[in-house]
Specification:
The chain has helices at about 70-80, 110-120, 140-145, 165, 180-185, 215-220, 230-235, 260-270, 290-295, 295-320, 385-390, 405-415; strands spanning about 10-15, 30-35, 60-65, 95-100, 140, 150-160, 190-195, 225, 240-245, 280-285, 325-330, 335, 335-340, 350-355, 360, 365-370, 375-380, 400. By secondary structure, it is an alpha/beta fold.
Length: about 425
């Protein structure tokens, strides 16, 4: 379905959702996308569970996060795309677990505390990324693997500085300080960053930075290839690539690259280094959450299927590679979605939303690849990066992040540039 660019987003802007019970001060200023067409979706030709590759230890790690994607969001997308008896790509993964998502206070988590648990292995307060509740900074599993020679990257349809993709390597007390997060991501020396949010990397008036810094120019001088279109992304080399396809969040509509296309490009770039190195990729279907905040059922289905199509890219890569562990999980459920109904009619399923906020129910984890059998049972969200570390033979994780002296930091930056 083709839409006028001026009507691509719903007129209903997500209202301020101060999760008082969860201690969340974040203002949700994003607009839920209005597009609902799902004709793009290509489901599996069968619903058999994938045969898991043989191997005890993976070489590469891919973590796919469907933001706000509860079990019922998956079930609803399946019903809409392939019927009650069909399967989405993620539903063919052979190992599953239930994962608790509460924050350090036992409250409903936001995405910042959620990604801190999933990437840093610690519980924290809402709004904080990579910091514990006392303000000490910790190292993400991606940063820890980077110390072992891994290439790292993130892909998202939100701004790249939004809470979940920022969890690749950010350390900050307030997730809304996206201009500061952009500096931290630049300093992380990540190999691939693909998504929206160009404005946080540019000075006024092109962007919103008030410090006068042009982070894209700095990145280009430091060796990153900067891309801004689908065509440029398709031909980007296997070095460091920084891609922004929207000033703010992506529209998830043409001419932007899809989440699947960005994921495919990230896998090509990360795996194509010479000499070849292992990699860690964080991929997020960001806007499932936004549709659920606005209780937009059909748009939530579309965003879930866009995410599942990107998951398919990771599974096809891992099946061919046989050395890659893929984990699919949500940081939390959003909207308290309930499904009910009965009978054999094609559109029998009815929905009811109980909230416009996050909920505290467990989410499903799905796993495929060497070591996937270690991600089963009932887990806490902090168990995920801890088990990745243990699986890879890393004993010092979770790990506090040691501050370097100015001289040591400068020497490290010089060494990485050479």
């Amino acid at each position: 379905m083709t839409m006028n660019p001026r009507t691509r987003f719903s007129a209903l802007t997500l209202s301020v959702l101060c999760l008082a019970a969860a201690g969340c001060s974040t203002v949700w200023h994003y607009v839920a996308p209005a597009e609902t067409d799902i004709s793009f979706y290509q489901p599996p030709t069968d619903k058999e569970t994938f045969s898991n590759p043989v191997g005890e230890r993976p070489k590469n790690i891919i973590v796919c996060i469907g933001d706000g994607m509860g079990i019922n969001q998956i079930a609803l997308a399946r019903q809409a795309a392939v019927g009650a008896d069909g399967r989405l790509w993620m539903e063919r993964m052979p190992y599953t677990a239930l994962v608790y998502t509460h924050n350090i206070r036992g409250e409903v988590t936001d995405s910042a505390a959620g990604i801190t648990a999933l990437m840093y292995g610690i519980k924290t307060r809402n709004d904080r990324i990579g910091q514990d509740s006392k303000g000490a900074t910790w190292m993400s599993i991606a940063e820890r693997l980077q110390q072992n020679g891994y290439r790292i990257g993130a892909v998202a349809t939100s701004t790249m500085t939004h809470a979940t993709p920022a969890g690749l390597a950010a350390h900050i007390h307030d997730r809304d300080l996206e201009a500061q997060i952009a500096v931290q991501l630049l300093e992380s020396r990540a190999d691939v960053l693909l998504g929206g949010g160009r404005k946080y990397w540019l000075p006024q008036p092109q962007g919103v930075r008030t410090d006068g810094r042009n982070l894209l120019a700095e990145a280009e001088s430091a060796g990153w290839r900067i891309v801004s279109t689908r065509e440029q992304l398709a031909t980007a080399p296997s070095g460091r690539v920084l891609g922004f396809f929207a000033s703010d969040a992506m529209t998830t509509l043409p001419p932007e690259p899809t989440l699947a296309e960005m994921t495919r490009a990230a896998l090509r770039i990360l795996s194509g280094s010479s000499p070849q190195k292992p990699f860690f990729l964080l991929m997020e279907g960001s806007q499932i959450d936004w549709c659920c905040h606005s209780n937009n059922t059909k748009a939530a289905v579309r965003q879930t299927l866009l995410f599942d199509t990107a998951v398919r890219e990771t599974l096809e890569f891992a099946a061919a590679d046989k050395q890659t562990l893929v984990l699919v999980i949500a940081d939390h459920e959003t909207g308290g979605l309930t499904l009910y109904g009965g009978g054999l009619k094609p559109n029998w399923m009815k929905t009811e939303w109980s909230s416009k906020n996050h909920s505290n129910g467990p989410v499903i984890l799905l796993a495929f690849g060497p070591g996937a059998e270690h991600f089963t049972g009932v887990l806490d969200n902090t168990d995920i990066p801890r088990r990745i570390a243990r699986l890879l033979g890393i004993s010092d994780f979770p790990k506090p992040r040691q501050k370097q002296s100015a001289a040591a930091h400068a020497a490290s930056e010089t060494a990485q540039l050479n």
